[in-house]
Amino acid sequence: LVYGGIVLATGYKFVYGANGLVTKTLSSIIPGLAPNWFQGFGAVLFIMTFACTSNHIMFLTNAVRSVDYHTIEAAKNMGASPLK
């Protein structure tokens, strides 16, 4: 899990770093853009959120699929209303 984050951060630094493709493109569009605009906590937060969201969705989907129908039926009998 840690090595995946390191590889991911290195890849994003290659794309968004001071000499990255996105930074060069944005610098040509926005002349005053600092070359080190994508760094620090915000950059790590963006990278890890973007990369790990698919894992969380996969875990959530499998957890919802494994809910037994009897559990749903018991909740309805106890007064739960369906989601709309």
UniProtKB/TrEMBL annotation:
Gene3D superfamilies: MetI-like (1.10.3720.10). It is a multi-pass membrane protein. The keyword Transport applies. Its main location: membrane. The chain crosses the membrane at residues 37-60. The keyword Iron does not apply. PANTHER family: INNER MEMBRANE ABC TRANSPORTER PERMEASE PROTEIN YDCV. This is Iron ABC transporter permease.
